[in-house]
Model the fold of this input.
Amino acid sequence: MIPEQQARNLLEEHGINSLPVNPIALAETLDVSVQVHDYGSAFEGMLVVNADSILLGINSRVQNQHRKKFTCAHELGHLTMDIGVDGGTFQCAGKDMESYSKKVDVVEVRANRFAAELLLPKFLIETSVKDNELSWKSIKDLAASGDVSLTAAAKKFIEHTDEACALVVSENKMIKWFQASPNFLFKMDTDGRVLSDASKANGMFANGRAMSDFEEVSALTWISSGSAKRDDKILEWSLPLDSYGRVLTLLWDDQGIAEENIEKEMDGDSDNSFDPKYGWETPTFHRSKRKR
Ligand SMILES: [Zn+2]
Done:
């Protein structure tokens, strides 16, 4: 069973059907002792399960309230999915909770997916996400109703929206990670990529002006040239630098240009302006044609 389903089942078993979800209260109903304590710098959250007790520790050095909640939800993920009959112990560092990438241990990624769903479960947010327009205002409203961080709300919004959009998180003018919605068909090379000078996000690191809506930029500002053409446009809405030193960006292919490009390519109607060094991944029959 996927971790999201495990989280939804836990909520359902305890009759939780409104936001915000309080994971600490939920832990207590599971007979878990929750302790907020200064554990030093080795880990942010821990779980110790033995024959007659369950201890869930949250490091008091974690200042941010949303982060504390997420840490608690993450440990509940281990309790639900990773503890066998003999009990067990988990000590989870900050980096375990930040990343959903392949570089992080699969058990930690699973606990993060569980935690994200526990705090903003599909059955409580999907309808409102689909009914609300894509904007930072909608995402801020979602964050407020779930009492979660803006990043957590943005991830879930992107997961459920029908719009072709993506969330990009940048740090030190580098793309740290991005998440695309199911309908976002552009491809992005993100590994260690430096932000283009032409992006609004780049300007935010130099105290750029606040944006109150999407603005059009060349798609190639963000999208790899294997999947966007010279004249393609995309909408960007970046927020000013946050207290973690990050810039959050929404990208929106509101015209469905990526899909058009793929269709044209399949029809053999390409104007050959794709940069061949990136190759073109779909469709395969076209790639084989190109090799000749
Ligand atoms: Zn963990």
